[in-house]
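During the no-cost extension, the postdoctoral fellow (Dr. R.K.) reprocessed legacy sequence entries with the updated structure-token encoder. One reprocessed record is reproduced below for audit purposes.
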Amino acid sequence: MTSQPKVGPLADLTLIEMGTLLAGPFCGQLMGDFGANVIKVEAPGQGDPMRDWGREKAHGKSLWWPVIARNKKSVTLNLREPAGQALARRLISRADLLVENFRPGTLERWDLGYDTLSGDNPGLVMIRVSGFGQTGPYAKRAGFGAIGEAMGGLRYVCGDPSTPPSRMGISIGDALAATFACLGGLVAIHARQSTGRGQVVDSSIIEAVLNMMESLVTEYDQAGYIRERTGAILPNVAPSNVYPTKDGKMLLIAANQDTVFGRLAEAMGEPGLAADARFVSHAARGQHQQVLDERIAAWTVTLTADELQNSMDEHGIPAGGIYRVPEMLEDAHFRAREAIITTLHPTFGELRMQNVAPKLSETPGSVRSPAPELGQHNEEIYLEYVGLSRQEYDDHVGAGVI
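Re-encoded structure tokens follow.
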């Protein structure tokens, strides 16, 4: 079991997480991984739906929740009631950051908009994650990650050209919006050091996805070119594909640079390929991409995956397997870098999950505590942090506010 440090570089920051599912909570996870004191606000008796999500369950519990809620504390609070809204203001008045992913306008209806909250706490950084952003004609539309992926341009270019656009297999739109939200929140905290004031960070899924789309917009603007789905290849970039092996596995080989292709030709025992007019340059290989891929595949299928990987390593050619979790757990590099760690969980016992990324040499992040039970930290936060009296606390509990 890896020994984890007790603090992190963000240990001086407190973040209130008001949001559910993925887009807001992943931002909270990233902050918590690096030490921020993350207080997650959940509806009494209900909690974040992520507590129940996921196709696979163990002990009747979600296996998604332990990852997204690690390093957090849970309190319950009914934000739809005036007493709950007043208590939320007291909680937020002591915080550095607030992250929320309600539909735009929701917090304002609850008298929890930024103008109100910053009046109590001028240094507050409010991170708002939504489908379309806080402004514009689509702002109040419901906006799940899949919609942002579609409208941001990602879905159209994913998959095989013979099929409709494919899903990525993970909730990438939510994760990207949350990552940009985390970046924006930390930038705003940095700016606060000189201004003394907080600000609003507006992270939309559609724009987070759009910002990952490389030169897609500029290609159309300048050349009228629209990228299409291309499956496993990037058109006119060869060789860079998934190739079969003797033992029925697959290896991705990327040897499209001239010098690297020369080394691949040597590995294949056909050094003359690098001088062949069809393959002598990047442009030529792109024009004869299918013929080249077929020739390489005819060679790779004579080797096992291990033999092929060893050959690629010996010749300095970028290559790697198409990993599932079993392959990750067996991989020596994953183990050496502790990319997957074993944590202790009160229900599951030893529980494996991905480690914190990126790695910092002096102030690394860590997984310090398991995902909390609903309302597990109510007394700690409301009595010790907010400063409620025992009578106030009991009254709120009796009224269903907490």
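The longest strand covers residues 37-42. Residues 172-195 form the longest helix (24 residues). The remaining legacy entries will be reprocessed before the final report is submitted.
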